[in-house]
UniProtKB/TrEMBL annotation, chain B:
This is Sugar ABC transporter permease YjfF. Coiled coil: none annotated. Keywords: Cell membrane, Membrane, Transmembrane, Transmembrane helix. The keyword Protein biosynthesis does not apply. It comes from Antiquaquibacter soli.
Length: 507, 339
């Protein structure tokens, strides 16, 4: 594509954007601009001010200071509806559509074609089909939204956004729940919109995707602007450095790959585990080992984790701990055996946002002790404070509501909750999903340290690179079966990918 | 051009079935309610031999006209994910007020609009508490229920007879609806009109679709730029107006107003709406379903009086049915969220 020269007129220009929450300045005099027909990425750690800037741009939040100029006209948005009318449309990370209504309504709600005051359903379906057709999507407009997969719902959300006159399209973490094929489909749609001259703001934690699709990057750090760059002129390592504001060599995590000595008694020995699609999964975990589970979405990664930790009960197979067969029939029992689980759904199955950090950390331990052995408040505080310090949770207040923390810090609070139980085995399901790269590295390092201290960890992640880096051995899952277990030294991302992608040969 | 995961299967028998399920899944609970109603009709006819007569069926509508009107209003509120416990008490209060105003000699042309306005005001009060003060709908409408009940007693502690010819005409006129002894009263016509207007509002207006949107996900509806505040307030106002209208109809039905009228009616109404296939979590359901729910409720009452059994059996049967429907709904919801 032809690079837009710097003197081309930006479609939207924000100058001196400042937002304060009480004493805290979330956004401090940030300038930001977008050009038509360009994909622009907003990068920064959690807490850098990305979402604040997006909210300001899309009318979800009022700027305390600063101006927004759209197409040369100064604008003020009091509500998301104002911004939408002006042509700035947003597709949020959690799909903000209505699962109970039809696809056509989800696309056109608020602008339904009407005849004599009544909604004209036929015209509505026709219009929706036309919009879907433009994006190359073959979806029945009359079907209920909830009958479609998340990926299609995401594309329908984009269809809604572009069905009206759109100048700026904001995509907030659109790929976080999509698999590779679905991401490719999304990118095809993005390129199509680019051709039409739409300015697209693409926010993602995945550097690969940013480099694949984006023309321009704006980096924020700590609420301030670091700079605006053309993607092709910016090296990855430089980008990361700008985001983190520290030198890049700190990022390299010490590789952990002490192989298990053969003949060593396995601490956890799982044989022939099966339930639903899972079939005959074998796992062996030694003391102080990090075992990675790799595989595509739907290969059974999470299912294995849930069976190990007593959330679901296996139909077949045995789980042996120290050579004794155990049955962790429910999470409580599993914790009794020292088996703990951190869910991939941090917000719904992990953190309780309305409770303080202290309460979140002491929750599981208190539950384990039972109501008659209540921990004193001072003891709770002490315990929470020690974990906050040990894991570097920020802000470091024990009384902060957990819901107000960034994703990375929430994950650390969850880890602290489990670690307070002094478990023997940690099962971490996507512990780094949706958190910024700095926190990611910290979580990875933490896992390594825990293993060094003798804890065994089952580490699940969709990012193969991460699995490779953290684990000493990797069990590969495909379609609900454990296909192979390999030393991670012997693997590269490419070879692992090749193995995952290998067609099933009915072994 | 099309991507890998987005192709919809077409043109096979199973495809057609899938199409039905992907488009019309929310009608399944309504069809279930209809099936139960039909089974009840057939069973009662087989047992009694004289159940499916024009007289009995016509009375079904007559005896439950007030409940039908309340159920339509309640459907609006439940679809937004709310609940309105005040309707029984508001019906009693507007009935009492209307009866006393009529006794004082005010013309019916003034009294009826006043009753509807009072209902609307009560509904608006609940809506404001819910929307602006962030009070749980359960609590807000509970407060309104106590207030309305108390106000009903303020009007009079004893029953007030209604002698206004126009009000009595609503009830006593028997319009021959079809050959035979089919009949319908003006109250029945009113109730049917309310159902039709309610159904059209929900299906064909932005207001109606916004109600469904709010029930689906209020936050999303707001982000989509829909008028959430106004719509939610209006849903409670609709329920309040329906309660006022039910006050008119119930007064006509009994020929008198009594401050203890309609105790527990709000729960009967909710039961009828739920049996009619509306999800208590909001976002899914139909006025037509609520009508079927009311007919199921009425038929149970009729069957039990045919049996000569105690009317307490009505409550027991309704309770059992309600349980069944809530469980069925849970299963449907659980299944759709697993996808």
């Amino acid at each position: 594509m032809v690079p837009v020269s710097d003197d081309a007129r930006p479609v939207v220009e924000v100058t001196g954007a400042t937002v304060r929450f009480l004493a805290e300045t979330a956004l401090d005099g940030v300038d930001f601009r977008m050009f038509p027909g360009e994909v622009h990425s907003l990068m920064g750690e959690n807490g850098a001010g990305k979402s604040t800037l997006i909210k300001g741009l899309t009318g979800a939040l009022r700027l305390d200071a600063g101006d927004i100029v759209l197409d040369g006209e100064p604008v003020h948005f009091g509500s998301p509806a104002d911004a939408q009318r002006a042509g700035i449309r947003t597709v949020y990370q959690e799909i903000d559509l209505l699962p109970n209504l039809s696809v056509a309504e989800n696309i056109l709600l608020g602008r339904e074609p009407r005849r004599w005051g009544a909604i004209d359903w036929k015209a509505m379906r026709r219009e929706a089909a036309a919009v879907l057709g433009e994006l190359g999507l073959d979806v029945d407009p009359a079907s209920t939204l909830s009958s479609h997969s998340l990926a299609i719902q995401q594309l329908i959300a984009i269809a809604r956004a572009i069905s009206a006159d759109v100048k700026v399209l904001v995509l907030d973490e659109p790929t976080s729940s999509l698999d590779l094929d679905e991401v490719a489909e999304l990118f095809r749609v993005i390129r199509e919109l680019k051709e039409r001259g739409v300015a697209i703001l693409f926010v993602s934690h995945f550097l690969d995707q940013v480099y694949e699709i984006c023309d321009r990057v704006t980096v924020l750090r700590g609420g301030k602007l670091v700079g605006e760059y053309l993607t092709r002129e910016l090296l990855r390592i430089d980008l990361v450095q700008k985001m983190l504001g520290r030198s890049a060599d700190e990022l390299v995590v010490r590789p952990r790959s002490e192989p298990v000595e053969s003949g060593e008694e396995a601490m956890l020995d799982v044989r022939g585990l099966g339930r639903g699609r899972l079939e005959g999964v074998d796992l062996v975990l030694a003391e102080g080992e990090v075992l990675g589970l790799a595989g595509l979405l739907g290969s059974g990664r999470t299912e294995v984790a849930r069976l190990l930790t007593g959330i679901d009960r296996p139909d077949d197979g045995t789980i042996a701990l120290d050579g004794v067969v155990i049955s962790p029939r429910n999470p409580r029992r599993a914790i009794g055996y020292g088996l703990t689980y951190s869910s991939e759904n941090r917000r719904t199955e992990g953190i309780i946002g309305e409770l303080t950090v202290r309460e979140n950390i002491t929750l599981a331990l208190q539950a384990q002790r039972g109501i008659f052995r209540r921990m004193r408040h001072s003891r709770q505080k002490e315990l929470a404070a020690s974990w906050i310090e040990a894991l570097g949770i920020r802000p470091s207040s024990t009384e902060q509501l957990a819901g107000t923390l960034s994703g990375g810090n929430q994950q650390k609070v969850l880890l602290a909750r489990l670690l307070a139980l002094a478990p023997r085995i940690l099962v971490l399901d996507e512990p780094t999903r949706g958190i910024d790269i700095g926190a990611k590295v910290e979580v990875q390092r933490l896992v390594g340290e825990l293993a060094d201290n003798g804890m065994s960890v089952v580490f699940i992640s969709a990012e193969l690179e991460e699995v490779l880096r953290v684990s000493s051995r990797i069990t590969l899952l495909r379609d609900g079966r454990a296909v192979a277990t390999l030393q991670s030294d012997a693997l590269t991302v490419d070879s692992l990918l090749a193995m995952i992608a290998q067609p099933d040969d009915g072994e | 051009m099309t991507g890998i995961p987005v192709t919809v299967e077409r043109a096979s028998a199973s495809g057609a079935l899938r199409r039905f399920f992907s488009r019309r899944a929310s009608w399944i609970p309504v069809l279930a309610a209809l099936a139960i109603l039909i089974v009840m009709f057939i069973g009662a006819q087989a047992y009694f031999g004289n159940f499916l007569t024009p007289r009995v069926i016509s009375s079904l509508l007559l005896d439950n006209a007030y409940l039908l009107i309340l159920a339509v209003g309640m459907t609006f509120v439940i679809l937004t994910g709310g609940i309105d416990l005040s309707v029984g008490a508001v019906m009693a209060f507007t009935g009492m007020l209307g009866a006393s105003l009529l006794r004082d000699g005010l013309p019916v042309g003034v009294v009826v609009p006043v009753m509807l306005l009072i209902g609307a005001a009560m509904g608006l009060a609940v809506g404001i508490m819910v929307q602006y003060f962030d009070v749980q709908p359960f609590i807000a409408s509970l407060a309104a229920m106590f207030a309305a009940r108390g106000l009903a007693f303020m009007v009079s502690l004893s029953s007030i007879r209604v002698e206004d010819p126009a009000i009595l005409w609503l009830q006593s006129t028997r319009i021959q609806a079809a050959p035979g002894s089919w009949f319908i009263t003006p109250t029945g016509i009113l109730a049917i009109l309310v159902v039709i207007v309610g159904a059209l509002l929900l299906a064909y207006t932005r207001f109606g679709r916004t109600i469904y949107a709010i029930g689906g996900n209020e936050q999303s509806a707001r982000l989509m730029g829909l008028p959430v505040v106004r719509t939610k307030l209006l849903a409670y106002v609709v329920s309040g107006v329906c309660a006022g209208l039910a006050g008119v109809v119930f007064t006509a039905y009994t020929g008198a107003s009594y401050p203890l009228n309609g105790i527990g009616t709000e729960l009967d109404t909710i039961a009828a709406v739920v049996i009619g296939g509306t999800l208590l979590t909001g976002g899914s359901g139909y006025v037509l379903g609520s009508m079927i729910g009311v007919l199921v409720y009425g038929s149970i009452k009729t069957v039990i009086s045919f049996l000569g059994a105690e009317q307490s059996w009505t409550r027991i049967t309704i309770g059992a049915l309600l349980l069944l429907f809530v469980v069925v709904q849970r299963i449907i919801v659980a299944r759709s969220s697993r996808r």
